[in-house]
Design a protein that fits this description.
This protein is mostly helical. It folds into two domains: 1-195, Growth Hormone, Chain: A, CATH 1.20.1250.20; 200-407, Growth Hormone, Chain: A (Up-down Bundle), CATH 1.20.1250. 78% of the residues lie in helices and 0% in strands.
Length: 407
């Protein structure tokens, strides 16, 4: 592939394989192990595989400051990560999930580490190669592909599992991941003057620390918005699974509704972000998606009052997913605008996105605690109010101009 060619097929492939493995591990493996009688306290250990994902901002500076002996700053890390992900899936397929659970759990954690490296690297590459008018479509591709990976890994492979079994499922995942690795081999990343591979890392890190301080000061209001943003959507979706369990929904029905149906709607939403940004521009698109997300949360109120028919549940899930991926794609576009102006693109992209992810976990946990004391309905109403307040803050604080924003 020529260096000046925009690698759309590669982008789709990387972002899809990024999620098929982790979706299978978190969703399908849970169901497989529980069906075989694994105790819940042992099953809870599977959550440890998410730990490396929380540290992306810590190793992003290494990805920006050093590269292996392959062409391309980010391509070199992608080749390494994709190869290791493939090999780990092959090894896990050989092992017995019931007799060697602890070994497989450790390998899953290592897999997630390389998946996180892949995530940081492809985000850095996207910040580097896509111009401002292309970024909304690149981020739509990202979230649509993530959701496609979620459907394949968390849904379709679970459906096919009776035929594939453990080894077949893991080796199929390895084969899909290897396809992306071959695409990376034939891709040539454009070089630029900012990149100095194999130079002294110490001075680069000192310079990076200075850049981080200046970046945080310059964009302090933007970070304030990112700190608040997840409160407008994470808390409500976090209570959906326990709410449906309380309503005696079968686990298979919950998984299909939230993972397969929700993700399919989410793919449409991700591409709506491109349409909205092109027609409304970045600020108006962000406000529109934020208000849409807040409004659709009200569809959860009947569920919290005990009305959990399939029609109402699917309507609420449709509402949530028709707004949320589009909102995240729009936010990521604005995040990419800021990161693309810095030499260490992966670091500054991860810094901003990690704040959203971390606060999303925090607000989700807070929502469950509030639901315990005040009920599900209270959480939905409060989240709706917060979404409206956040939209108002965006209108007040975010400048109209886009890629050269000051916050």
């Amino acid at each position: 592939m020529k260096a000046n060619t925009k690698p759309w097929p590669l982008l789709i492939s990387v972002y899809t394989t990024q999620y098929i493995g982790i979706a299978f591990m978190i969703s399908a493996t849970f169901a497989i192990l529980r069906q075989s009688g694994i105790a819940l306290d042992k099953l809870a250990l599977m959550n440890l595989i998410a730990l490396p994902m929380l540290g992306k901002v810590l190793y992003a500076p290494f990805i920006d400051s050093f590269r292996f002996f392959f062409q391309g700053q980010y391509r070199s890390w992608l080749i390494l990560a994709q190869m290791c992900m493939t090999l780990l899936l092959l090894i896990c397929g050989i092992l017995d999930i019931h007799k060697q659970f602890s070994v497989i759990l450790i390998l899953f954690i290592v897999y997630t580490l390389f998946m996180s490296i892949q995530d940081v690297s492809i985000d850095g590459l996207a910040c580097k190669i896509f111009s401002a008018p292309e970024r909304q479509f690149a981020n739509s591709i990202q979230y649509a592909s993530n959701l496609l990976g979620n459907i394949i890994g968390g849904g379709l492979l679970l459906i096919l599992y009776p035929w594939l079994q453990w080894q077949g499922a893991l080796w199929l995942l390895a084969g899909l991941t290897a396809i992306t690795w071959f695409q990376l081999i034939f891709y040539s990343e454009p070089e630029n003057k900012w990149e100095n591979p194999h130079q002294g890392i110490g001075p680069q890190f000192k310079s990076l620390w200075t850049q981080l301080k200046l970046f945080l000061i310059q964009h302090r209001l933007w970070f304030f918005l990112l700190f608040l943003y997840p409160i407008g959507f994470t808390a409500v979706f976090g209570i959906l699974n326990p709410l449906l369990v309380d309503a005696k929904w079968p686990m298979a029905d919950i998984g299909f509704a939230t993972k397969v149906f929700g993700s399919m709607i989410g793919v449409i939403s991700a591409f709506l972000a491109t349409v909205f940004i092109n027609k409304l521009k970045r600020k108006a698109a962000l406000i529109t998606f934020t208000l849409l997300q807040g409004g659709t949360l009200l569809l959860f109120i009947p569920l919290t009052l005990g009305y959990t028919s399939k029609a109402l549940v699917y309507l609420a899930i449709f509402g949530y997913f028709i707004a949320n991926p589009g909102l995240m794609a729009t936010l990521s576009t604005l995040i990419m605008d800021r990161a693309s102006t810095m030499p260490a693109r992966a670091t500054f992209f991860s810094l901003q996105l990690s704040l959203i992810v971390f606060m999303g976990f925090a607000y989700s946990a807070m929502g469950l605690m509030l639901a315990q004391h005040f009920g599900y309905t209270f959480v939905v109403v409060m989240t709706f109010v917060c979404a409206v307040i956040v939209a108002g803050l965006v209108w007040k604080l975010l400048p109209k101009s886009s890629p050269e924003l000051t916050i």
